[in-house]
């Protein structure tokens, strides 16, 4: 087993993400596949290929241009020749495989003229002089619906076998490859990247093609993704693409703190933790890209909808540890950063945002998981939600804060902690008000000042006293009665409207003021009674 010689190796990454034919759905994750793979192969995380030896071609429409890239690669590569394609795979009228390009026409009679014939790629790689040849196909072989990169109608996998070449395919002949909506990468390439970046303590020191394939065969079907395939391995399968960052987890080594943290966790929790961190990183990247364009362009509703889809998938895969203490949370290692870090709104916003999003995702998984939390665990989880809500507001993400406050309130409701529940609901209402356009916040601010959105009903007594004082002064100024008489009259009128015969001697203006006072008093007393009734009897 060995790594390729960077100076004698070449990589060609081909991706098709946009298509003029409306029957071919666009694949935005393919563009990320290409950029992420290029970054990986040219870094120390893989085999440190010089950037000039890694060619990334995205949305090239000309088969002739791609043919030139392939031939140049075959001429220059001596140790490793790696070709990667991600996009739609189609079957031509001749029954052969064709790799779709932006201008590809899906009509079988026209596919052969507008797509990249796989036979070109097959012949070029078969005759290349490189000692090791690797072909990675992240596609399947016909159109897809919504988020699948192909359909069940496909050619046999044997068509992609190339003598002397290790061929990795993202799905079997009768399965579609998957490009999950909302994910940064396609399913196959995403797991491929993750494994090379993080490794595994169950894999050898060098991540060979066989080790990579074995990992993907275990992980992808477990998440209801197609089972990947591998063909014509021979000795090429023993060539490595990266060093295993997770190798020797139980032995002393010079490693980074992140790796050490994962080592202390069980494999299941470590895997789920990594998926949480990866999902958080993608969400943070989306949010920061939107925030950089200005708050008016940020649609937190869409962002949270996408996050909810991701959380639902993770909840479905989450299996709580069978043995754990009743007073501890499964993802306490994620929450600890949130609780221990002293929040400073002006520093390291990306790191802090990532920390809060990771904690939010973990808390939602733990809150929605299969296991029933103890009272202590529920209290701690509510504390987590409250701890991450305020930083979200400081980062101008009030809807994220509202979600955290709402989840905390729900936990307090189940625990029958009314005071904590209403406190969290109050902060949720405030966060929702902040998420509205400035011109629509006035009503919310007024409701907060008067009665704390209904969760602080006793504030109304302050407003009642102010109303009484104001009306008393105004009525005294408009009449000739002594202040004591006016004060008594105003007090009685505020609580129970006076009969017109009782106010006949105060003058017209004073009578009008008394009428206004009695109306406002009746309204505020009805509101107060309703809020107190809800608080005491609901």
CATH topology of the largest domain: Rossmann fold
Order of strands in the sheet with most strands: 2-1-3-7-8-10
The residue fraction in helices comes out at 40-55%
Radius of gyration: 33 Å
Q: What string, H for helix and E for strand, traces the elements in order?
A: EHEHEEEHEHEEHEHEEHHHHHHHHHHHH
Q: What report would you give on this structure?
A:
With 538 residues, this protein is of the alpha/beta class. It has three domains: 6-255, Rossmann fold, CATH 3.40.50.1460; 265-450, no CATH class; 459-537. The chain is built from 18 helices and eleven strands. The chain has helices at 28-41, 63-76, 108-114, 118-126, 187-198, 209-222, 257-263, 267-292, 300-317, 332-340, 349-368, 375-394, 398-414, 418-435, 442-451, 459-478, 483-495, 508-537, and strands spanning 10-15, 54-58, 80-86, 89-91, 97-99, 116-117, 132-138, 165-169, 206-208, 229-231, 240-243. The strands form three sheets. It has a six-stranded mixed β-sheet, with helices on both faces. Strands 4-5-6 form a three-stranded antiparallel β-sheet. Helix 1 links the parallel strand 1 (10-15) and strand 2. Helix 2 runs parallel beside helix 4 (118-126). It is elongated and about 110 Å long. The chain starts with 9 loop residues before the first strand and ends with a helix. Residues 142-158, 249-264 and 342-348 have low confidence and may be disordered.
Secondary structure layout plus pairing:
Elements: E1 10-15, H1 28-41, E2 54-58, H2 63-76, E3 80-86, E4 89-91, E5 97-99, H3 108-114, E6 116-117, H4 118-126, E7 132-138, E8 165-169, H5 187-198, E9 206-208, H6 209-222, E10 229-231, E11 240-243, H7 257-263, H8 267-292, H9 300-317, H10 332-340, H11 349-368, H12 375-394, H13 398-414, H14 418-435, H15 442-451, H16 459-478, H17 483-495, H18 508-537
Parallel strand pairs: 1-2, 1-3, 3-7, 7-8
Antiparallel strand pairs: 4-5, 5-6, 8-10, 9-11
Helix pairs in contact: 1-5, 2-4, 5-6, 8-9, 8-11, 9-11, 10-11, 11-12, 12-13, 13-14, 16-17, 16-18, 17-18
């Amino acid at each position: 087993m060995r790594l390729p010689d960077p100076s004698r190796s070449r990589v060609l990454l081909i991706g098709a993400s946009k298509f003029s034919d409306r029957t071919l759905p666009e694949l935005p994750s393919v563009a990320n596949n290409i950029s992420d793979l290029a970054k990986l192969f040219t870094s120390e995380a893989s085999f440190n290929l010089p950037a000039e030896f890694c060619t990334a071609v995205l949305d090239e429409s000309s088969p002739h241009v791609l043919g030139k890239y392939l031939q140049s690669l075959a001429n220059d590569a001596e140790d490793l020749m790696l070709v990667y394609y991600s996009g739609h795979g189609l079957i031509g009228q001749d029954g052969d495989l064709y790799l779709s390009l932006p201008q590809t026409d899906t009509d079988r009679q026209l596919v052969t003229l507008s797509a990249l014939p796989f036979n070109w790629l097959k012949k070029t790689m078969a005759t290349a002089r490189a000692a090791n040849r690797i072909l990675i196909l992240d596609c399947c072989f016909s159109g897809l619906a919504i988020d699948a990169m192909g359909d069940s109608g496909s050619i046999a996998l044997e068509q992609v076998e190339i003598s002397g070449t290790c061929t990795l395919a993202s799905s079997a002949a009768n399965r579609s490859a998957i490009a999950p909506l909302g994910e940064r990468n396609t399913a196959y390439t995403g797991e491929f990247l993750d494994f090379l970046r993080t490794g595994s303590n169950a894999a050898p020191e060098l991540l060979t093609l066989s080790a990579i394939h074995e990992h993907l065969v275990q992980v992808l079907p477990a998440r209801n993704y197609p089972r990947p395939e591998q063909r014509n391995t021979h000795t090429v399968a023993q060539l490595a693409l990266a060093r295993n960052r997770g190798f020797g987890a139980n032995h002393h080594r010079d490693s980074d703190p992140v790796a050490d943290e994962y080592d202390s966790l069980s494999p299941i929790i470590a895997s789920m933790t990594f998926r949480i961190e990866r999902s958080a990183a993608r969400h943070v990247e989306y949010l920061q890209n939107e925030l950089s364009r200005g708050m008016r362009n940020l649609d937190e509703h869409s962002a949270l909808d996408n996050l909810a889809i991701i959380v639902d998938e993770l909840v479905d895969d989450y299996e709580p540890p069978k043995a754990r203490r009743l007073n501890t949370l499964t993802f306490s290692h994620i929450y600890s950063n949130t609780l221990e870090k002293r929040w400073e709104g002006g520093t390291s916003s990306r790191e802090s945002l990532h920390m809060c999003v990771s904690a939010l995702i973990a808390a939602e998984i733990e809150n929605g998981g299969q296991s029933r939390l103890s009272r202590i665990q529920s209290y701690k989880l509510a504390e987590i939600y409250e701890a991450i809500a305020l930083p979200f507001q400081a980062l101008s993400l009030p809807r994220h804060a509202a979600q955290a406050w709402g989840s905390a309130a729900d936990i307090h409701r189940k625990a029958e902690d009314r005071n904590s529940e209403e406190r969290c609901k109050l902060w949720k209402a405030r966060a929702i008000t902040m998420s509205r356009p400035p011109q629509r916040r006035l009503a919310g601010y007024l409701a907060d000042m008067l009665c704390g959105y209904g969760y602080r009903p006793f504030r109304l007594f302050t407003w009642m006293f102010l109303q009484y004082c104001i009306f008393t002064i105004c009525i005294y100024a408009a009449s000739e009665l002594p202040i004591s008489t006016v004060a008594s009259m105003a007090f009685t009128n505020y609580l129970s409207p006076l009969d017109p015969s009782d106010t006949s001697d105060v003058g017209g203006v004073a009578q009008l003021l008394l009428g206004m006072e009695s109306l406002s008093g009746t309204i505020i007393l009805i509101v107060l009674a309703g809020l107190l009734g809800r608080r005491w009897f609901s």
